[in-house]
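Researcher: Here's a chain I'd like modeled. Treat it as a single chain, no partners, no ligands.
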Amino acid sequence: MTPDSEPLAPTVRVQFRTAGPLLACDAGGLPLAAGDRVVVDTDRGPELATVVLAAGAAADPGKLARVVRKADEQDLAREDAAQSREAESHRTAVSLVRAKRLEMKLVKVEHSLDGGKATFFFFAERRVDFRELVRDLANRLRMRIEMRQIGARDETKLIGGMGPCGRELCCSSWLREFHAVSVKMAKEQDLSLNPSKLAGMCGRLKCCLRYEYDTYLELKRELPRPGTRVVCVKGDGTVVRQQPIRQSVVVRRDEDGAEVEVTLEDLVQPKNAPAGPEAR
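Model: Modeled as a single isolated chain. Structure tokens:
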């Protein structure tokens, strides 16, 4: 650090909504702990947030949002008042959208802490000209209006709900970021490729398909691939499928065509030997 440079400021990481992304903030010299409600000075104005990580690496304070103060009863009361007005703003917006026949679905409304701005989150399959809608909303609500288009996954994250597993949706309870999910992940786990079983509440592939994907890849790496010729104590034959969790494979024996389960300990030939003609 040069003599003329700004001293680095201790930081905290906060979230503005449950399972929202973490934002590094200048702690402002305050003694903060995880779970503290704080007021953060953001580009959008003051906003209430919750401290998730109280101790963070020091950073240039000029590049961070700043924690202004710990939230007091007045701040929490303003938050409650803003949330109570959001339902009415949502009803007003829905009636305008229907009247203008706009092809968009309003998902959620958020009012700023100072009551000067309303952000409308909406889902639409294509671009929507909402300029007239914004003007009418501004006139009726007497505040600044921001329209924010979101995807199907973000819509489900904001609304929340219960998954087919019986638990609260991962995206709305703890999952902070969405990662790419592919059908390949289901195939590697030998799951049924029934779209109705692979799709989550958002209509997209379930996020949980990622959770055990790497583990399955690692377990399968130890096993001979289907089509591989193997020599084993239960009879030589060809691997027809893998059973990663059991760390075994099913082998079709040459002598009688019967299928038998074979563990790695039963194999005489080194595992993952090159596949024979049947594998190509």
